[in-house]
Design brief:
94 residues, mainly alpha, 4 helices, elongated
């Protein structure tokens, strides 16, 4: 993790909080402890997907076959959909 990220993220959060410009659907802070169970999964999936892509690229005869597909999300709110979509877009597969 970059040191710049560690310094800038709290500053942005503090500035947004001070300006009171958060949208109507705020992050439910009382549920944040559940992230300790959630975040290891997408981080692991991102690492595995990146390794798969690197292996596919390094295979000599045409290792990549791009495809687009639709994934239905069960989340109802905007925040839930964003949290679900971020790892999906980060973890590109071969």
């Amino acid at each position: 993790m970059s040191v710049l990220w560690l310094l800038s993220a709290p500053a942005v959060v503090a500035g947004v909080h001070r300006m009171d410009v958060l949208d109507r659907e705020r992050h439910p802070i009382h549920l944040s402890w559940r992230g300790s169970w959630y975040w290891p999964w997408p981080l692991n999936e991102i690492a595995l997907a990146n390794l798969d892509v690197a292996k596919a690229i390094l295979r000599l005869p045409g290792g990549i076959a791009p495809a687009v597909f639709e994934v239905r999300a069960s989340q109802k709110g905007e925040l839930g959909r964003v949290i679900y979509a971020n790892p999906v877009t980060l973890a590109s597969g071969p």
